[in-house]
Amino acid sequence: MTEHLPGAAGQSMSAEIAAQPEVLAASALRHSEIAEVARVVSARRPRFALLAARGSSDHAATYAKYLIEVLLQLPAGLVSPSATTLYGARPDLSDVLVISVSQSGGSPDLVEVTEVARGQGALTVAVTNTPDSPLNAVAELAVDIGAGPEVAVAATKTYTATLLSLYLLIDAVRGGKAEAVRDIGALAASALDDTEEQVAESVRRLRFVERVLTTGRGYSSASASEAALKLAETSYLAARAYSGADLLHGPVAAVDEETAVLAVTSKGNGGAAMVDVVKAVRERGADVLAVGSAAGEMDASSRLMLPDSSEEVAPILEILPLQRLALGLALARGGDPDNPRGLRKVTKTR
């Protein structure tokens, strides 16, 4: 993809997308550091896990929920921060693992949720890109995702570095040695470099679309949600994300030839479950862009093929060309994704 000149719209987002192979390769080398945190978690033997997050970090938390349920065989759920901050809920969290995910570590609601959870007996772990953040200060344990400063408002390298850090943590809790991400830097480079022309063509194809639906199953449902957010915040598109299963339970009725569908389909159980979903939306006339290592198996209008990987780490790769798609569409539609209207880098909520 063409590099943007200094001062050009989208230059920060473009640079941060391109930096991800290097960031991910470096993060994978921090396995032993994250394994120290994992050893404490393993020793405490939590009964179940809760995850607290907002925005892009909430999608990373959804990914972690699947990792915990599948790899650790523990029940896991997503926290509703408002239950604590607005309604004063104080549940007994003895022997519960609470992982709070925030790139900035500065959102007051997540800080309060984490502090309350620790006071209620939970083992609390902060996963952030800011080691000296308020969130780290109130959590018992902390994982630094190590993405470095991120300037663009839209999270790119911090998102994928968060996914990788969560994978390293949860894999280490089960006694894994991070074999599945040993070559993650090279895989990420391939995911970006090998899809460059196809992303540019997808930008031309989708430039004037006004309604986008993103969908995936299993681990890839996090990628579908994050893709919808990126399109909404950079291109101001009316983008909605649905699990492939939920899509067939009703929303598919709204799909027609005016709808663009981004289907995230990597090899594995989740991708196999998407075959019928993609077929259903194609039958309704939708323009379907399939993204992932299983894209070639889908009845799609166009494809962004990605390298094979373990299904549980595929979301780290799936989002990369979709970030570039969001960047390209924003620029093609006359916007500046580095300065989306009404948004700031750090959003503080309670």
TrEMBL record:
UniProt cross-references to Gene3D superfamilies, sorted A to Z: Glucose-6-phosphate isomerase like protein, domain 1 (3.40.50.10490)
Domain (SIS): residue spans on this chain: 37-179, 199-340
GO MF entry, a single one: carbohydrate derivative binding
Keywords annotated in UniProt: Repeat
InterPro entries from the UniProt entry: GlmS/AgaS_SIS (IPR035466), GlmS/FrlB_SIS (IPR035490), SIS_dom (IPR001347), SIS_dom_sf (IPR046348)
Biological processes per GO annotation: carbohydrate derivative metabolic process
Domain of life: Bacteria
Alphabetized PANTHER family for the sequence: AMINOTRANSFERASE-RELATED, GLUCOSAMINE--FRUCTOSE-6-PHOSPHATE AMINOTRANSFERASE, ISOMERIZING
Protein name: Glutamine--fructose-6-phosphate transaminase
Lineage of origin: Bacteria, Bacillati, Actinomycetota, Actinomycetes, Pseudonocardiales
